[in-house]
Amino acid sequence: MLISLSWIRDYVELPVDLHPRDLAERFTCTTAEVDGVSPVAIAAKGLIAAGVVAVADLPDQRNARLATLDIGDGKTADTVTSAPVLHTGDCVVYAPCGASVAKLGEITESRVAGRASRGMILPGDVLGVEMAPFEAIFLGEEFQPGTPLPAELFEDVVIDIDNKSITHRPDLWGHYGIAREIAAIYGQPLQPFPVVPIAELNPGGLAKVPISIADFGACRRYSGLVLAGVPKQPAPLWMQLRLGHVGMRPISGLVDLTNYVMADLGQPMHAFDAKKVDRIEVDWARDGDRFTTLDGLGRTLTSADLMIQSQGRSVALAGVMGGLETEVTPETSELLLESANFDPSTIRRTATRLGLRTDASARFEKSLDPGYTVLGIQRFIQLARAMYPNMRLAGQLSDAYLQTHESITVYVNPAHVDRMIGRSLPVDEIQEILEPLGFEVDFRHDELAVTVPSYRATNDISIEADIIEEIARYVGYNNIVPAMPRVTMRQFQPNALHELEQRSLEYFTSVHSFNEIHGYLWYDSPWLAQLGVEAGSCVELRNPASDGLHRLRRSLMPGMLRAVVKNRFHFPAFALVELGSVFDRGEQEDGERRHLGLVSARRGKRIENALYQELKDALAGWAWQRFARTVDFVGTAAAAPWEHPQRTAELQIAHVGAGRISVIPLALRKMMDEHLGAWSIAWAQLDLTDLSAMDRRVETLGKIPEYPLVEMDFSLLVPLSNSYAAVADQLIAFAHPLLKQIRFVTKYEGDAIAKDTRSLTFRAVVGHDERTLVEQDAVNFRQAFEAHAKNCGYQVRT
Amino acid sequence: MDLGQLQETIKKIEAEVVSQLAEASDVDGVRTLDSSVLGKSGTLGSLVTSIKDYPPEQRGQVGKTLNEAKGRVKKLLTRRMAELDRAALDAETSAAAAFDRTLPGVAAPMGSVHPVTAVQWEIERSFERFGFTVEAGPEMEEEYNNFDALNIPPSHPARDMWDTFWLDNGKVLRTHTSPVQFRAMKKFGAPLRVISPGRCFRYETIDASHENTFHQVEGLVIDRDISIPNLIALARTLLMDVMQREVELRVRPGFFPFVEPGIEIDMNCQICAGKGCPTCKHSGWIEILPAGMVHPNVLAAGGIDAEVYTGFAFGLGLTRLAMMKYGIKDIRVLNQGDLRALVPPECVGGPLLASTTDDAHAALEG
User: Fold this and answer.
1) What is the ipTM of this complex?
2) B111·A486 Cβ contact <8 A
């Protein structure tokens, strides 16, 4: 929200040499975040008011016209202008030759379209007021043509306050509330809010506009007043400039006035044509009702939308925007001023549903003080009297208000304050902090009874902690002396999954040189389509980041394969690891599981077996490190397009499924990227969620053998159709008193042996606990082992 | 063999030894010669067993002759051994003179964790030294846990602060790690010291400084008499630990529905050292740690007696911290899986002649 410093100065006396950055810093550290401070530095010199005497088109000029201006003392000046709207009788801001403003420098005589153009009608944006291009600011009767315009009127400093930092402060959505904080920060008195006494709104002999409210929960208060003598004049220049400085475009005398009260107090207002709206009924819309808002758009309503109606006809979308049909026009003779208070969630719901967030709805959804409705009207009349003497009351103030809650009193234990800020704070200091903010403080026994002002009582302050915050921010967080907590020691149960995730990632990145990547949580549909992959039944996003990103991933693989394509241009070999959540659509409930994905890619055809084997060994090492257990790789059918029909295995640890390992089939590699046809890619994925429940076996460490051990190698000729695992299972069954260990050494396939066989070499470690082996021991062992191998159907190579 | 013949034989053997020693090129050759001459079955050694064949009166003489011969041979062997030892040492020295101690070998690839993970682990270690436990929590979260339990009722305007990804099962992708506060309170009760690092999601447009997917770490301390000074002290110590340098803090009010009072802790910008730069929007301060004293409603939702316990909570943007630490200028590279952006070139191709990534901060300034 933009705040004008000159506006603030109406309410607080601030040092003339105040450095706006200092104000911003102190405001940020006490109240709310200031996003920026920018001076409105117009440096106006020699500007005057000028009356438009005549406007003439110029030949061959579409956007420029010739204006003849009355510049006072009976003199006129011709100037070429691009102002889109300009009529005889208008009064504008004029820079005669020799005058200057910061944006344009000195104005000199020029020739435009063959015409001498003297001086310039200044458009709003040159004067710090954002308007349509070249649009002029119009002046009311306050300045006669030729009157010099005071330079200081144009100067200001604009403070930009972060809206998110004041969502909880309904009182800060107007200048007066901000001024209250600034006054407290600088220890200055706050000027009273300028209003007419309420009695003056109730002159005798005038009627009240009838107001009925169907649901006081939705409309807490509705105040209305009929006024005659609708102003035809623009608002005073100072008001237009201030509105411009805080980002509101000057529109007309009436609209500017209601906007000014909104930016001043925070209370939104609306004006109806009183001829078309002679009574107010606040009620819910019916589903399917149509309504055209001021912006000319037709809206379809629901029964959750609150409407302002008159004689059963909708005239405004409550708290959001007025209706086109009943807006004030130049023909309007009497207007009905609305100043109301609505339930924040109702307004928010409607504004959100219709995508129509207005200055009004943004304020109502913060839960404004219901007291503001009448206060706003009092302020409106106070300003109107000075600006538009013709305006007068054409009715009494009508006020529908079912006051439900009394004022809030919060009891504060000073010891709690001391505890929270870490030092003892005398109660009179607490009082000195709270009172300038509008709180009343009463001492009662050991506690303080703090009465909350109405503008802080809606959705803002209700408990002791809220009051402590008020005290703490004025004590100053930066004045609080840091002190480490004194804590109670306790033990926490270990988080097995988190531990497993971290250790696994650590293992693959440090022992096996995988590089970790992160991917998005959702599938990319075009990528799946390119791979010819069916997404399957996924948990879906109702509002995806963009089209085709609506399915939550069920596997890490599609995303990782995408990363493979990205990296294959730059690295001839790489290994990726990703840790992340995947989601299953469940019958009863959808599930989230933590997966670890591993992909090893290398340029080179037909090396996938080697890659698979490296990966398999890495996985075996991982399982041993984590659980002191071995992994079984159980051959299985392909269950996903990235699983190879003959090269896929399920990982099992202690007979529990732990993940899958495979290589990417050639067909899929080519769909990923045609160059990947010449690559080999192995991958694995681990389901850590299940595994986190697995306990770590405790391995026993043996003693150093007293007598020497002997290693004996055996090479078995095994048909290619027998898997290693099958052979290993058979060998495990071999028992012998001298056998200490047996392990796989190497395999051989080639010309030296039969075509459909391979040679698997195993190494047995043999020894005796009580003596050194003798020659005969080795002979006996060899015979026994070879007999076992033969029984299993394998010939032993010699 | 009479004594004369014996001496002849010995002479021959000695001559043989001399010529063979001249040929021996290494210590092993000398050792072999040693055993083939002096060993039990060696040319000279075996003669000792023949002493008994001599008449007793000659045996003394024969023994003496043989011992003297063995002594002479041993001396020859030892001298040659010493020569060869010295030569080997000289050779090693002269060979080493040509050795380039600086030439790189073939670099083995090094693995790496993601920059965000690296920072996350550092932070976890840092907190563990303060006795914090680590809780993760799911990324697909109940709406209640993400909002209501944190004192953000439905249709509260504060919900706008978190642009939410909604799922078709009524849940949300968590918009912050704060729901783990609630989960941890339920799981552990008070007193409590927990951090919860993790991924969060916000429905917003991606550009160089905004991502819809990012990491945070949440911290929560609940105990008797926990205060604002405690929060500031811990924040300061941790930030210095993470940044590994002195940091300045600015503490100011901030609004988050789950804390009361709520504060924002800013750190002096580490890139421009507080002078003002684009990263800190020329303010000299970086918003680093939104925090506050846990709201009594949140304690109550977590089943903790707010009369007895107070607590503070804070959040830390891990992604932002990683970007600052590693000089990453474009947030989008973090989720793209392109190793060129995530891994220093040294990790994939070995050391570089001159590192271009040495000083990320200097690079950012330039």
Assistant:
1) 0.87
2) no
